Amino acid sequence: MIMMMLMLMINNLILFSSHPLMFTLMIIIQTLLVSLMLGNISYSYWFSYILLLVFLGGMLVIFMYITSLASNEKFKFTFKLPKFMMIMLSMTIPTFIYLMYFNNMKYFKYDSMYLMNMFNSTENPINLINLFNMPNMNTTIISMIYLLITLIIIVYITNMNKGPLRKLY
């Protein structure tokens, strides 16, 4: 439940970020929280670890591109703390009240008996092996090729001999 609250707060912080590097940092933190939460509800942390590595690889490519575009900008915090905290609390507390009481706390129970029943039930089997088997394998391979091509293009664009995308004066 604490991770869900942190994820909602990071989502709200993303809305108020004005600097691209701060935005990238918040997305990386959000990715880490999602992979930890996925690891808590699965048999092992293998899938969440692979997901984290893929997301961080893509984020490093985006981080390299953004630092070449906005390398000299300074961080400016434009929000005031009391106003910001009131907005954050007014957005997260009703969401948690809804999720806990009206949704019967289905996603917040992390005790071992609940997890065993969730994975052993025939109604909703969570099978991560199907993600990399034949029908979905093409999507995974296309995603890897897309990330590789994007990395090669960005390395070519930001070649040290040609300089960054943005001229430094």
Automatic annotation (TrEMBL):
Keyword Cell membrane in annotation: no
Main location: mitochondrion
Membership in a protein family: Belongs to the complex I subunit 6 family.
Species this chain originates from: Oecanthus rufescens
Transmembrane segments: 21-43, 49-72, 84-102, 141-159
Source domain of life: Eukaryota
GO cellular component: mitochondrial membrane
A single GO molecular function term of this UniProt record: NADH dehydrogenase (ubiquinone) activity
The protein's enzyme class: translocase
Reactions listed under catalytic activity: a ubiquinone + NADH + 5 H(+)(in) = a ubiquinol + NAD(+) + 4 H(+)(out)
Lipid bilayer topology: Multi-pass membrane protein
Cross-referenced InterPro entries: ComplexI_Subunit6
Protein name: NADH-ubiquinone oxidoreductase chain 6
Keywords per UniProt: Electron transport, Membrane, Mitochondrion, NAD, Respiratory chain, Translocase, Transmembrane, Transmembrane helix, Transport
Compartmental location: Mitochondrion membrane
Record-listed E.C. numbers: 7.1.1.2
Keyword Translocase: yes
